[in-house]
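Hi everyone, sorry if this is the wrong subforum. Our group has a chain we'd like a structural model of before ordering constructs, and none of us has done structure prediction before. Sequence below.
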Amino acid sequence: MTTCEEALSLTDFLFLGRGVHFPIALEGALKLKEISYIHAEGYPAGEMKHGPNALIDENLPVVVLATRDPDSDESRTRYEKTLSNIQEVKARSGIVIAVACEPDAEEVGKIADFLITIPPTTELLLPILESCRCNYWPITLRCAGAAMWINRATSPRA
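Answer:
Right subforum, don't worry. Here is the predicted structure as C-alpha cells:
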C-alpha cells in the first residue's frame, strides 16, 4: 500500500491500542467504518496474540497507537511493548500505520510503513490528540479517493 487509493481498495483494517489508548483504537475503527465503509476492528494491543495475529498478512493494514508520555516510566514500558507488537505485525508482512509522538518519530518510523505524528504530552492527554488523528485520517483517506462520499446513515431515503 503506497497511496490512499490503494488503501481504499483494501477490505479490512485492524486498530491496536494499549491501556488508555485502547478506546481510541475502538473509536478509530468505528470512524473508518462510518466514513469509508471499510471493515475495521479495534483490539487491545496486549491481547494481539490471542486472535488477530492469525489474520495479519500483506493485505491487512494495522493502525498502531504507539505514543508515550516522556515523563512516565510506566508509559515507556507500554510503549516498548507496543513497539514489540509492531515488530510482530511486520514479521507477518502486515502493513503498519503508526501514530507516534514527534520525538519518537525516527524510532517508530524505522519499523512502520506509514507514520502519523502528534506532539508529546502527558499520558492522559495523549488519547485526545490520538482521537483527532484517528478521526481525521479516515476522512482524508476517503476524500483522497475519487469516489463521491455519501453518508448512507443520514441521506434521505426514497
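For your construct planning: Confidence is low (pLDDT under 50) at residues 145-158. DSSP finds five helices and five strands in the chain.
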